[in-house]
Design a protein that fits this description.
Pemi-like Protein 1, Chain: D; 57 residues; alpha+beta; 2 helices; 2 strands
């Protein structure tokens, strides 16, 4: 488990090892999920992004 700090403007930096493991890129969307007493950050997969874009059209 990694410990990070919330910066001014409520920004966080995802540690390098996690960014690499999940192949996160700048500008990529993630979902914020509240689970009981914790926050989970879940990457939005490209297929899911495509489906959402098609649904908006």
């Amino acid at each position: 488990m990694e410990k990070i700090t919330v910066l001014p403007g409520f920004q966080i930096t995802i540690p390098r090892e996690i960014r690499k493991k999940f192949r996160l890129q700048p500008g990529q969307e993630v979902r914020i999920i509240l689970v009981e007493d914790r926050i989970e950050i879940v990457p939005v997969k490209q297929e899911e992004e495509s489906q959402e874009a098609m649904a908006r059209e």
